[in-house]
Write a structure and sequence with these properties.
The structure holds two protein chains of two kinds. Chain A is of the alpha/beta class. Chain A is built from six helices and ten strands. Chain A has helices at 43-51, 73-77, 96-105, 113-125, 141-154, 171-186; strands at residues 3-14, 17-28, 32-37, 58-63, 66-67, 80-83, 159-163, 191-194, 207-212, 215-219. Chain B has helices at residues 42-49, 52-55, 77-80, 91-94, 100-110, 115-128, 144-156, 174-189, 201-205; strands spanning 2-10, 19-26, 31-35, 60-67, 70-71, 84-87, 162-166, 193-197, 209-212. In chain B, helix 8 links the parallel strand 7 (162-166) and strand 8. The chains are: A alpha/beta, B alpha/beta.
Chain lengths: 223, 220
């Protein structure tokens, strides 16, 4: 099975404040892995390292036994997608429709019927059809968050790295999102979920981890 | 006492009313949950209460807001902000200074509070929120949750009468949620008025009044 394997990872923004010291973690692509930790413990930093935004780490990160470090963003993006915590930081265009088109095709646009059909289906599922041509600056925080989820659905087959995906979602959307995670799980597609709260997704989680004292430790199954 | 009288609002003439003739009275010690699905106007309502709408963001607003019997539309933003303070949903929109300490000193300095009192206020707030270790950190280097705590600290140094907290718990650990919840209860016990906007049940459970935004939206 495909996976990301992190071994003896050490990382610091400033030498005197290490975030990770010899931390290890395996992320199998068919499982739902949950990761928590105190504010400032390094949860988002781990996402940044996995997505290639931080490369100054020590230790090894392998994807399917290949060293991940030299991978470019484009190469990484073939297998993983990273949804950032702050909704607007995932946005790359002025309207949801344009944004999702970019997520689909990159800047090399190939509009065709099947791709616009996919966007339509995704937006219907997340109840954002009516927002499709509204500029982002007219949308609320929760609405922008939904567009981020739509970008995930456009990249359905990739391994999802999700930083606080539920925060800011209303109850309707939380229900829909959980349905999506369940459905993907039955298809053998997993994700990494970083959050403070696991109560709503407890039944879906395969393994839980905690970042503490610069390490990543597994938490016993029943918590 | 904060009184909203016949508030109606829409962003432009072509859209339905987001708030349709809404009146509400909040008295000292009230914790008010502002609930509703995404896009129903939770943030908009908070922006109206602190008069950021219409003074900074335009829109079609009618009705009056009285704070201690003063019509706040007659006050400037710098006059309103120390009495009615807003915690924004996205901390990056609120943080302004290179370091945490400077950020926390800014508002009280503007109120011409003596330097040694400002330092005292900052000391107290850092201890209260258990973030003394962040004091000399650069705000840009903080995590989302830490930024949220710092923006909350910056409001606490002002000690306003009315707190407008937009998703205050998003991104916070359980330990910090507990800490902030306790602080909110203490503020209410001391006669402050607190509005909490958000989705989570954490917000509703200790509120003593609730505003359901869907009921304020114009039916169409």
């Amino acid at each position: 099975m495909k996976s990301i394997r992190i071994k003896d990872l050490s990382f610091a923004y400033q030498l005197e404040n290490p975030i990770f010291t010899n931390a290890s973690l395996e992320l199998p692509f068919n499982e739902i892995t949950f990761l928590k930790g105190a504010n400032g413990s390094g949860k988002t930093t781990l996402c940044r390292i996995l997505s290639g935004l931080e490369k100054r780490y020590i230790g090894s990160i392998n994807i399917n036994n290949l060293n991940f470090k030299p991978f470019s963003f484009t190469e990484r993006a073939k297998s993983i997608i990273y949804l950032k915590q702050e909704p607007l930081s995932n946005v790359v265009a002025a309207t949801p429709e344009d944004d999702l088109t970019l997520w689909q095709h990159g800047f090399d646009k190939h509009p065709n019927e099947s791709s616009s059909e996919l966007r339509k289906r995704v937006m219907e599922r997340l109840r954002i059809k009516d927002l499709k041509d509204k500029p982002f600056w007219e949308l609320s925080g929760g609405q922008v968050k939904r567009i981020g989820l739509a970008a995930l659905l456009i990249n359905y087959d990739k391994y999802w790295i999700l930083d606080e995906p539920i925060s800011g979602l209303d109850n309707t959307l939380i229900r829909i999102f959980i349905e999506i995670l369940e459905e993907r799980k039955t298809l053998g597609k997993g994700c990494l979920i970083i959050s403070h709260k696991e109560d709503k997704i407890l039944n879906l989680i395969d393994k839980s981890y905690l970042i503490q004292n610069e390490h990543i430790e597994q938490i016993a199954r029943k918590f | 006492m904060l009184e909203l009288k016949n508030i109606s609002f829409r962003y432009n003439a072509n859209s339905p009313l987001l708030i349709n003739n809404f009146s509400f009275l909040a008295v000292k010690g009230n914790i008010i949950a502002v609930c509703g699905d995404s896009g129903t106007g939770k943030t908009t309502l908070l922006n109206i209460i602190c008069s950021v709408i219409p003074k900074i963001f335009p829109g079609d607003l009618s009705g009056t807001i009285f704070h201690n019997n003063i019509n706040i539309s007659e006050l400037s933003i710098p006059e309103v902000a120390p009495q009615i303070s807003l915690l924004m949903q996205h901390p990056d929109n609120q943080l302004f200074f290179p370091t945490v300490e400077q950020e926390l000193a800014f508002a009280p300095e503007n109120l011409k509070i003596p330097a040694k009192d400002i330092i005292k206020r900052i000391d107290d707030v850092l201890v209260k929120l258990d973030i003394e270790d962040l004091r000399h950190k650069e705000t840009a280097s903080l995590s989302f949750g830490q930024k949220k705590l710092v923006t909350l600290a910056s409001i606490l140094t002002l000690s306003p009468d009315v707190y407008l907290l937009d998703e205050p718990f998003a991104g916070l650990s359980q330990k910090n949620i507990k800490l902030i919840s306790d602080e909110i209860k203490t503020l209410a016990d001391n006669g402050k008025i607190i509005f909490l906007a958000g989705h989570s049940n954490d917000i509703i459970q200790f509120a003593n009044k609730t505003i359901e935004m869907e009921n304020l939206n114009e039916k169409h």
